[in-house]
Amino acid sequence: MGFCISCGQQHQDGIRFCRFCGNQQPGEQLLARLRQEAEQIHYLRLQAQALAQQQQLQQQQLQQQQQYSQNQYNQQPRW
Ligand SMILES: [Zn+2]
Question: Among candidates 33, 15, 32, which has minimal Cα distance to 24?
Answer without folding.
Answer: 15
